[in-house]
Each structure stands twice: as C-alpha cells, then as structure tokens.
Amino acid sequence: MKQSEKSDFRYNTGEAKVPWDAVAVKPDTSLVMDVVRFLIGPGADTSAYAAAAIKVEGAVEELYRQGRPAAKLSLGAQVKAVEDLARQYLGCKHASFVVNWTAGYDIALDLAGVRSGDEVIIPAITFIATAAPALRKGARIVFADVQRDTVNLDPVDVARKITPRTKAIVPVHIGGYPVDMEPLMELARQKGIAVIEDAAHGFGGTYQGRQLGTIGDFGAYSFHEVKNITALGEGGIVVTNSDLGAQFAKARFCGFDLETPPPKTWLYNISPIYSTDGHAFVPSNFSTTEIQAVALLNHIRRNDQIIAQRRAAARKLHDAFSNVPGLLPGPLPSRDYGSTCHLFLLRIDPKVILGGIQPFKQALANKGVTQIAHFCPLYYYKLFKELGYDQAAIAASCPGAEQIFFEHYTHLPLFGLSDEAIQYMIDSVIQTARELKA
Ligand SMILES: Cc1ncc(COP(=O)(O)O)c(C=O)c1O
Question: What does the angle CA 395 – CA 397 – CA 398 come to, to the nearest 5 degrees?
C-alpha cells in the first residue's frame, strides 16, 4: 500500500527491508487446513476423509507457492467490496459491514440521537436484540402490538403509543415479510420520529418496489448463521440514505479519524460521532474481517437465487395448506410485499385445532419435522421485570401478540429441501391438523 493512501494507518509503511509482515503472524497452510477441516468436518469413513484431506493439503501448499497469501485480515479490500456491492444491490447511499445486526442497530440508534429518557417503539414479538442496545443507552422500550396475519408491527397501535418522548420506531420485517411501511413512515414524518428498520430477515426483500432496510431513516441486516445468507456465522450491514451515514466508518471503528489533524507526532485522531440533533456519541469497535467479507460477497451474489428457491417452497406449502380446515398459511410474496421467505408463517385456528399451537408443534416434532422456536413476546423476559416494566399492563395492551403467541402461530423452514422433504412436511402438517381437529 502506498504511503499516501488514506486508509488503515497500521499498513501504511510502504516498501521496507524488514517488512510489515514481520509484525504479526499470517495465515499459513496449517491454518487454512484447520479451517477446511472445521467447515468440512470428518465424514463417517474417517480413513477416506484423511486420504482426501492429505490431497487437499498438498494442493493448498502448492497454492501458497504459486499465490500471494492474504496480508490483511481486518477492514480491507474485501470489506470494502461488500459495502460497494451492498450499496449497488440495495440502491442506497451508505452501507457499512459490521460484526452483526445488533452493532448496526447500535450505530443507527446513536445517529438517530436515541439516549437516556427517550422512548423507542418496537413490536411485542421480535428477537431481544431489537430492544437490548436501546435499553443499554438508557432508553425505555414501548411495546406495540403485532398484526395477527403477519406477526408484523401494527401501525394503528404504534400511533396510540407515541408520546412526546418517542425518538424512534423499529419495524421488524419478521420472517422477511415486509411491514406495511407507508402508514408508519407517514406517522413518523408527521411527528418527527426516526424509523430504524429491523431488516435482520429482510436482505433482498422489497416493499412497493423498494428494498427493505432502505425505506426508513436507517436499516440493518443480519448475516448470522441462521439467516438466508451468512458471513460465516456472524455479520451485519447498516444502511442509510441520510448524510449522517458519512460517519459510518468512524462509528464502526472507535471514531478513527484521518481527516482531522492528529495530536503532535501521532498518526491519527479520534472523533465522536454526531447524531441528527447534534449530540456527540462515543463510537465503539464493530470491525469485520476479510474472511467474513469473502463469505458474504459469495452469498450476496447468490441471494436472489436463494430467495427464489425459498419462494418456490413457500408457494408449495401455501397451496397445500390453503384448503385444509384449521390451517391458516401466512401471506405469499406479492408485487408490493416482496418477502424474502426467510420463514414460512403457519397459523392454526384454535377453534378448529385442539389445544393451541404447542401440542401441534410437538406432534410435528414427533413426526421428525424440525421445529423453529417462534419468538415470545419480549415483555415476559426476566430482564423487563427486573427493569420495572409492568408485564401485565403491557400484555393487556398487546392482545394480538398474546393471542398469536399462545394459540396461533409457528414458523416452518424453507431452504434447500428436496421435493420429498417438502412433501413429507406438507403431509405431516395436514395429518397433524386432522389428528388434533376439534
Ligand atoms: C428479528 C431479529 N432482529 C435482530 C436480530 C439480531 O441479529 P444479529 O444476531 O446479527 O445481531 C435477529 C437475529 O436473530 C433477529 O431475528
């Protein structure tokens, strides 16, 4: 790297007799082989595996001789390539690749100016990460009810729960099915409230032709290993079309600042990040590795194909369940609601199927159909009790969440299933509905 390039100062030493490589250990054949062995673990026949591994090791050694082993492992060209591709794919101004969705949301909360005493409205049913970073900033979580047919935030209840302290609304595109963003954005604009989209399940999904995550003021995606695509286990991207996104690089890496003159004889300065209302926040370190970026680049390029496969499976399940008494499949993707089909929403009618959703799930598990633990209303967690939230009062204000969680809904998996496995799942669900029929 040339001295003049404004990048990561630690690699800015140029040509040298004692090179930069002397500073730290680099990946070698043994490390690559350990990664290969981890990702493609031993099969049942270990002697055949060992023989194959020796061949691979020889090939990796040859690659080392012929190639140029990676020198930079964190925040380098691959991370930049992820961000360039994400901006292009999503059609947004700013994108930053961070350690996970939670980190991206943390940055978005800071830039939206969420701090102690503010209120943040989230749906009652989601993953805990939609609440935790806001709580850590001293904000209060306000739970809005969810719609019974999608498990998504209900804009009507959001309107009821806005107060003068509401600083942000966080719609969650559960299972990749788009929240009805139009009424929500209208409400937020009228009241001057930020919208931060939890598009953890929504990368590549669309609402009225716009990419999920790019409709609100900020959005973030998760590339955890159980999402549609992954950055080798953990990863997230935070996006915005606002100029505040110019601070993403500082927000991700400790306020690292090459634009402001450094203190005497030092290399760089450290700056705060400024929220939309001018408040200074202390940045953290949410940096990602080049290896994560290589994996994510591969998956982003395949994302449309993966979504298409999932949508095809969802259509099969939907068609099969549509006319079965007691089964209420969730809505299919449409032109305006371009779901990523991360999860297949299946509701049951508790008047037709006895005992509610738990016996139904148990019967499916007994038949060998993997069960996804569907999210519980967050206000039941010990955390909220200890923080003084009135669980009974919140539950009473979220009747939709109460009913669908205890009686109605579950999620079915959609990815990589053979035709036989899909048919088996369809048959098992229909058979269970008949067995448990009132
Ligand atoms: C709805 C939702 N939001 C946020 C997250 C957090 O994502 P990450 O683990 O990448 O921080 C998840 C992860 O499961 C999720 O399901």
Answer: 65
Which residue lies with its CA nearest to atom 14 of ligand 1? 127
d(CA 386, CA 33): 47
Tell me the pLDDT tens digit for each residue of 175-215: 999 999 999 999 999 999 999 999 999 999 999 999 999 99
How many residues are recorded in the chain? 438
The DSSP code sequence of 42-84 is --S-HHHHHHHHHHHHHHHHHHHHHS------BSSHHHHHHHH
CB 144 within 8 A of CB 124: yes
Ligand 1 centroid to residue 101 C-alpha, Å: 6
CA of 189 to the centre of ligand 1 (A): 26
Q: Please report the sign of the dihedral spanned by the C-alpha atoms of residue 201, residue 230, residue 303, residue 75.
A: positive
Residue 136 and residue 298 in contact, taking contact as beta carbons nearer than 8 Å: no
CATH class of 302-435: alpha beta
Total-model pTM:
0.96
101 lines ligand 1 (CB under 6 A): yes
Q: Which helix (H) or strand (E) holds 337?
A: strand 337-338
User: With a 6 A CB cut-off, is 228 part of the ligand 1 pocket?
Assistant: no
Among 19-23, 83-87, 129-133, 426-430, which is the least confidently predicted range?
19-23
Fold of 77-292: Aspartate Aminotransferase; domain 2 (3.40.640)
Question: Does ligand 1 have an atom closer than 6 angstroms to the CB of 286?
Answer: no
Distance CA 103, CA 106 (A): 5
- With a 6 A CB cut-off, is 153 part of the ligand 1 pocket? no
Q: Is there an atom of ligand 1 within 6 Å of 236 CB?
A: yes
Domain boundaries, the chain: 9-66, 77-292, 302-435
CA–centroid distance, residue 186 to ligand 1 (Å): 26
Across 125-143, average pLDDT: 98
